[in-house]
Prior knowledge:
single chain, alpha/beta, four-stranded mixed β-sheet, binds uridine-diphosphate-2(N-acetylglucosaminyl) butyric acid
Amino acid sequence: xxxxxxxxxxxxxxxxxxxxxxxxxxxxxxxxxxxxxxxxxxxxxxxxxxxxxxxxxxxxxxxxxxxxxxxxxxxxxxxxxxxxxxxxxxxxxxxxxxxxxxxxxxxxxxxxxxxxxxxxxxxxxxxxxxxxxxxxxxxxxxxxxxxxxxxxxxxxxxxxxxxxxxxxxxxxxxxxxxxxxxxxxxxxxxxxxxxxxxxxxxxxxxxxxxxxxxxxxxxxxxxxxxxxxxxxxxxxxxxxxxxxxxxxxxxxxxxxxxxxxxxxxxxxxxxxxxxxxxxxxxxxxxxxxxxxxxxxxxxxxxxxxxxxxxxxxxxxxxxxxxxxxxxxxxxxxxxxxxxxxxxxxxxxxxxxxxxxxxxxxxxxxxxxxxxxxxxxxxxxxxxxxxxxxxxxxxxxxxxxxxxxxxxxxxxxxxxxx
Length: 417
Ligand code: EPU
């Protein structure tokens, strides 16, 4: 199993390009199930989760072509097997995103029920409740969700809580429903907006994406389209925090700064100078950061997907920071690994108190989930001596060529087998 070996202590310096967003790419790939025309997606990130999703779509009968520039063309004209098997769903929960499109266009779907995962229970009750409101007949048996419908019917859906993939699943399904669907308490994440833009280019009639009320006027069918996947705001944020933690100076190209207000705000509070010039974000940090308090919440508040990285920053800051996680019930597993590097962190329920220490010391640590892994990389870049990070397959799910990009910024990092 691959590991990452980092020799810390080098301030990051230079320029890198931001990749396409994983969490936009995954629902966009599923949108191909809504049409028998080709869907062309540009700026698709080269990630394990994307490969898994392409494999899932291909075994259903979607034709997949990928060129060297990672432009992906999908054609769902000859779908034969509307099933997402346990073996694939268990490795990637986002597989649930095939459910809405399949039942909307094919009238049936069989999708393995995603289990809990390392960061929390993560039920899909809101996806199922919404599809039932659209008229689907839903059964859960032997670990599989079976959904059937002749044609979905538009409905008013009020989500009990803000769910990103839940909103995306229902928005995709509603595109082909008869009549108008209103999704209230919808997720406002930029990835939802990016998906709606692609669906509208395919002929859908969606209004309100980016607000908490999304209205979808159903149409008979959708056509093909060409769409560019938005920049990854979590990758961008991760590199910004890494630069701030190491006292570096970086420029990130092809970013979407407007999607990063909460993160950039916290970095400025920590003492970083952050400038925005079109699609480029520059960050410079002198000296140790000041600790910041963070509370995660749905967009546009501070994202849960950046919580672990910010904890690594607070770990070496002056003062103490209070970090509150409100989205997932078990997303502090990086804390005990950071402690192995010398961080001083107390956890009580969903709150972490991080007392900054002047320096961390390299050690062997274990990645437990994607963003936890990113926080260990950041801590390793700061720590004195060598840090060896095990189980980095988590990182490969969501960060494109992370060690190459960090090496380009001067980090002493390499993959060992
Ligand atoms: N929830 C329910 N019932 C549902 C759906 C969600 O109770 O039917 C709960 C979840 O358990 C959680 C909260 O609602 O406590 C929010 O979960 P949400 O559904 O928004 O999460 P998700 O859609 O499964 C996406 C991202 C995650 C990101 C979260 C929150 C994708 C593919 N995944 O997950 O990304 O953390 O939104 O912003 O878009 C990551 O990239 O590392 C990652 C985990």
